[in-house]
Amino acid sequence: MQDNIRLLINNISVVYSDVIQVLKGVSLTIREGQAVSLLGSNGAGKTTTLKAISGLLKPENGKVTEGSIEYDGKPVQNSAPEEITRKGIIQVLEGRQEFKYLTVEENLRVGTATRWGKPYQKDLELVYNYFPALLARKKSMAGYCSGGELQMLVIGRALMAHPKLLLLDEPSLGLAPLLVKEIFQIIKRINQEQGTTLMVVEQNANMALQIAHYGYVMENGKIVLESNAKDLMENPDVKEFYLGTAASGALKSYKNVKAYKRRKRWL
Amino acid sequence: MEFFLQLLVSGISLGFLYALSALGFVMIFKSSSVLNFAHGELMAIGAFLFLALSAWADLPIVLAFVLTLAGSFTLGFILEKFFLRPLIGEALIQVIMLTLGLALMFRGLLLFIFGGDIHDYPEFLPEALSMQWGNIQIPGVFVAAIIIGILFLILFGFFFKYSSQGIYMRSVADNQPAALSLGVHVRRVFALSWAIAALVCAMSGIVLGIINGINVHELSSIGLKVFPVVILGGLDSIGGAILGGVIIGLLETFTGGYISTSLREIIPYIVLIFILMVKPYGLFGLVEIERV
Amino acid sequence: MRKLQFHPCGAYKTSYFEELHIFSTDFGRLWMWIGIVLLFGVLPFISNAYILYVVNNMGIYAIAAVGLNLLIGFTGQISLGHGAFFGVGAYAGAILATKAGLPFYIAVPLAGVMSAAVGMVFGLPSARLKHLYLCIATLAGQFIIEYVLVQWESLTGGAMGIVVPSASLFGIDLGNDRAFFYVIYFCFVLMTWIAVNLIRTRIGRAFIAIRDNDRAAEGMGIPIFPYKLLSFAISSFYAGFAGALYAYYTMSITPEPFNLWLSIEYIAMIIIGGLGSIPGSVFGAVFIVSLNEILSHLTEYLMNVGVSTGVAITIAPLREFVYGLAIVLFIIFEPKGLAEVWRIVRSSFRLWPFSY
Questions:
Q1: Cis omega (within 30 of 0) on the bond before C353?
Q2: Partner residue opposite B108 with nearest CB, options C135, C264, C324
Q3: Distance between CA B256 and CA B221 in Å, rounded?
Q4: Per-residue pLDDT tens digits for C15-51
Q5: Among the partner residues B91, B98, B115, nearest to C328 by beta-carbon distance
Q6: Which of A255, B266, C30, C236 has the fewest CB within 10 Å, making it most exposed?
Q7: Which chain B residue's Cα is nearest to A161?
Q8: Could you tell me the sign of the dihedral formed by the alpha carbons of A208, A209, A214, A215, in that order?
Q9: Chain B interface, mutation test: which of A97, A109, A121, A144, most B Cβ atoms within 10 Å?
């Protein structure tokens, strides 16, 4: 495995609207060619972490107030999304944000925005190769596609941009278990065959850890646990809370759990 | 019968004029969902700029034309950058009011500089353009309007359907955060669409100026006529704008010819209300795909 | 006597009922009474005829602006036809006074009711239309009403208009500015009071719910279409009421003033004043009427200064330019309007010198 650091997040804090602090000192490292998964419950700050990387905090009035994000050794925090995407960081947004009124193929073509004017025919073939279901529907309007097709569409669309670092936000959201499996297999293939560095944010920890090399667990805007994906799978707390397979076979009572598990939420 | 045919022909030509002036409007709406109430004033600016360059500065017609288009393009760019951009994310009514405010500013400025009189361009269209079928006559400008209209329809259609930039524009109108996440330069798209729209406005302003003479009030009232035209066709459809223009043009000439001239001005709006009651997104507008 | 209420330094409200109070402190209420006393007892006596004329116009416009804010600011339905509804009210009032011979105090509310009926007709498209499309439908309404006012000559007198007899109440002639001042401002206080209280009721909450998310409002069991129509009706009632007052005040009306331009002025008032704020609509009306007056004085002055009249004529359009500029600057730099400025000024005074 390569040891070049692709992305280095150093102790960042993110504040929305100057008052709501969501991330409180998050640090993580992504090495080239790695697939990293970021786990955590709702409101832990996973999506915010992704948006901090891809520069999409700005439209939501959020800001990285402390710390730094270094991509290939250069700071990128608080840059405009146009610049960040042109450096090769592409985020796949949560909840399948397709362009409803564009056809499937046109949706894919939007993915070429970062390298406007260059040929894209090969990339289309590549995407159709990974997602054959899209080929059949390439002329139909995306608004009428099914959830699974849309998820493939948005991942394919991101691939069109030749990402060096692909950020995936909950690719399993609202999909049938079989489909989730299929999509994760494809994600794994993309990582292996294209050498694309990946970061996957997931609720479905089991799936995410199977394809990842390394994993982080977030709680309340902090990273609480990090380790190799294999070790994480073995970790009793992770097993219990994210994989749903407690060592004793039955779910433990919340009372006996370590303090950090008891979340207080103010927002 | 002859009267009918004459009305038919002039209605269709009028319709193409309306359609041509609606194109710029649709352009802005398609990429940034802004309803531009300063449309008529943008047309007037183009028309007056051309007048100043061709008649007063005495430049060759072609050069004046190119300079006018370049000037309007720049104006659209500036408008977007300084006035519309601070409003991204604000409520619809604020944006509408802003364009209304801009319309007032432009109208005041134009009246200040050029006065309220009707001006005329020097004659420059070739005679050969006008057509004659038996007793029915089509003046050269109408032919020019129809040709320009069809040309732009095809050009815009291809642009939005096949060119990458056109697809990016549509993607921004469709889902801005997603477009941003893929690296579409959203600000550039907005600026470009305003610039192109101002350019098309200038062109239609010139054509209208050739036909009716150039007058601020006249052009800004045609700017309002654009609304029934585009709503009829569906706000985001270029083909719809042409068809809407032709329908409105025919309605106007036939009402004017057979019923009364005073009803002529109002008939587009009456029809508009009925169409909206039956087809809320116009004849060709995209029906909102709502998934809950 | 109960305890006086001051601004608490925190949220100490213990019931939702307390949140609904119009005045959070007794001082607010006190200031309001002082304001009303000054308005009625002092203002008409210290101002000359011209100032009184301007102030009267402000009152009339403010009533209509409050109505429009109920529609746009609270229900979220954009209307570009408010000026026309104002005109419908003016004509209804004039016709009721001349043809039906009704006394003034009946004609004005009745004109409001008629305007409300017309407003409901043109609010019908709101059943299926939203946002831009509705906006255009009301624009069409504006043009159609204008057309009817000019063309229905047997009733409206066409372009010649109608001469309205001066109002009288219990035998007292209300034809002069000062007497009519009391009429206008009595109505103004009453109508504002109704509006402020209306938005605290079930109806007002339904309006706000529809504005914020009509689909969710529907899901919560609010029948949105009747409420949208109701909002159109109430708003045009205000417009019609103000229009009838206008007819009585100017004593002769023509279709000319009730054009699209007037509708735009009304929207400018509530945007500059503050959307979704009743005091804001009043501020906006005061601002726009003053701006109009100042600009016309300025152009007049410039015309007199410019000895050659050739220069003078060309200066007049600049008035439009400045007007547009004012609107544009307001929207860009203070999109929440004068109500927000007022709130900031007030709270910085209240907390002075410790602004945190």
A1: yes
A2: C324
A3: 18
A4: 555 555 566 666 667 777 787 777 777 777 777 878 8
A5: B98
A6: A255
A7: B182
A8: positive
A9: A97
Of C220, C214, C188, C231, whose CA–CA distance to C36 is shortest? C188
E strands, B134-254, where? 136-138
How would residue C14 be classed by pLDDT, with cut points 50, 70 and 90?
Answer: low
Radius of gyration of chain C (CA): 21
Q: Tokens standing for B58?
A: 């005495």
Query: Where is average pLDDT lowest: A22-26, A50-54, A212-216, B5-9?
Result: B5-9
Q: How confident is the model at residue C237 (pLDDT cuts 50, 70, 90)?
A: very high
The 3-state DSSP class for residue A224 equals strand
Question: What b/e sequence results for C241-272 when a residue is b if at least 16 CB atoms lie within 10 Å of its CB, and e otherwise?
Answer: bbbbbbbbbeeebbbeebbbebbbbbbbbbbb
Domains with residue ranges and CATH for chain C = 50-351 (1.10.3470)
Instruction: Nearest chain C residue to B264 by CA: give it.
Output: C147
- The CA distance from B203 to A155, in Å, is 42
- What does the alpha-carbon distance between residue A197 and residue A37 come to, in Å, rounded to a whole number? 11
Cα gap B229→B243, rounded to integer Å: 8
CB contact under 8 A, C327 and B273: no
- DSSP class of residue B214? B
Amino acid letter, A111: G
- Asked whether the beta carbons of A38 and A199 are under 8 A apart, the reply is yes
Of the ranges A92-96, B211-215, C186-190, which one carries the lowest mean pLDDT score?
Answer: B211-215
A: neighbours with 3+ CB pairs under 8 Å? B
Number of Cβ within 10 Å of residue B158's Cβ equals 11
> At how many degrees (to 10) do helices C224-250 and C177-198 cross?
170
Tens-binned pLDDT, residue by residue, of chain B (292 aa): 778 888 888 888 888 888 888 888 888 887 777 888 888 888 889 888 888 888 887 778 888 888 988 999 999 889 888 888 777 766 777 888 888 889 988 888 888 888 777 877 777 666 666 666 666 677 777 777 778 778 877 888 888 888 888 888 888 888 888 888 888 888 888 888 889 888 888 888 888 888 777 888 888 888 888 888 888 877 777 777 888 888 888 888 888 888 877 788 788 888 888 887 777 776 666 665 554 4
State whether residue B224 sits within 8 Å of chain C by CB: yes
What secondary structure, in 3-state letters, does A127-157 show?
A: HHHHCHHHHHCCCCEHHHCCHHHHHHHHHHH
Residues within 8 A of C (CB atoms), B 29-68 only: 35
Q: Pick the residue of A110, A153, A159, A164 with the most B CBs within 10 A to test the interface with B by mutation.
A: A110
Cα distance from C107 to chain B (closest Cα, Å)? 30
Per DSSP, the three-state class of A90 is: strand
Is residue B206 exposed (0-12), middle (13-18) or buried (19+ Cβ within 10 Å)?
buried
Chains A and B touch (3+ CB pairs under 8 A): yes
A92 and chain B: CB distance < 8 Å anywhere?
A: yes
- CATH superfamily placement of domain A5-258: P-loop containing nucleotide triphosphate hydrolases (3.40.50.300)
Q: What burial class does residue C288 get, using C-beta atoms within 10 Å of its C-beta: 0-12 exposed, 13-18 middle, 19+ buried?
A: buried
pLDDT of residue A264: 44
Hey, are the CB atoms on B108 and C267 less than 8 Å from each other? no
Which residues make beta-bridge pairs with A35? A198
CB-based contact C141:B273 (threshold 8 Å): yes
Neighbours of C78 (CB within 10 A): 25
Nearest-by-Cβ selection for C335 from B90, B102, B277: B90
